[in-house]
Amino acid sequence: MKKIDPGVVITAIHQCTRKEHSGEARQDVFQKQIEITKAARGVSNTVYAWYGAPAKEVESILAHGFGGPRKVSASETYGVGVYLSPFGLPHLSAKFSEADDSGEKHIILCRVILGNVEKVVAGSQQYYPSSIDFDTGTDDPKNPKWYVVWPSVMNRHIIPECVVCFKSSINVPGQVRGSTHTKHSPEKLFSKLRSSLPPEKIKELAKLYDEYRAGKLTKNIFIRHMRSVVGDYVLLSAIREIRSSE
């Protein structure tokens, strides 16, 4: 995490307990799925992986399980499913976290039954295995950045183990804040960002900028939408570059 955000601070780690009947049932289902996958594939290929989400979604997952697939941009889509980053890449999932009222963000460490993993091409809308030989998907089987668990099996193949709470330097004054307040003008941000984004992102951002210039969006709303398009870390880098040049 510190490689991407040097100022990040871990504030708490909460182990997931499954004392209630529903939690015990989810644990039983997960354990049975390990046995089923082992019988079919020889090994279950169970790994640890990260899932980042806003606080309300984290709360819902812990209480009821995963509710649906992750919505991501076209350039980052490797099928329609639940996206988890490998154990060594928590920062990828952290970008989907959002600060709560206390300024904390949350990522869930999960156990994931991968079984046989197939490569899914970028931009794919696949939402189930391409054949009976596969169980889950990934962007790159040899060097994965994302594991993709299909919606039909997400609550059999994923179980949360703990929640890591952290505060990001992105939330400190003068940088990107939860309120999307920044002293820098949208014009400067747009000019800086368009030089470092892929074409599809530039097109999406240009449309938002046109709406802002036409008075259809306030500055805060524009920056909030900009943030969702480019991500916190890209926006923070742009702000830092602007500040260093002033």
UniProtKB/TrEMBL annotation:
The lineage of its organism: Eukaryota, Viridiplantae, Streptophyta, Embryophyta, Tracheophyta. Keywords: Developmental protein, Nucleus, Stress response. GO terms for molecular function: NAD+ poly-ADP-ribosyltransferase activity. It is found in: Nucleus. It holds the Pfam family PARP. Residues 177-246 form the RST domain. This is Poly [ADP-ribose] polymerase. PANTHER family: INACTIVE POLY [ADP-RIBOSE] POLYMERASE SRO4-RELATED (PTHR32263), OS03G0230300 PROTEIN (PTHR32263:SF19). It comes from Salix udensis. InterPro entries: Poly(ADP-ribose)pol_cat_dom, RCD1/SRO1-5, RST. The keyword Nucleus applies. It comes from the Eukaryota.
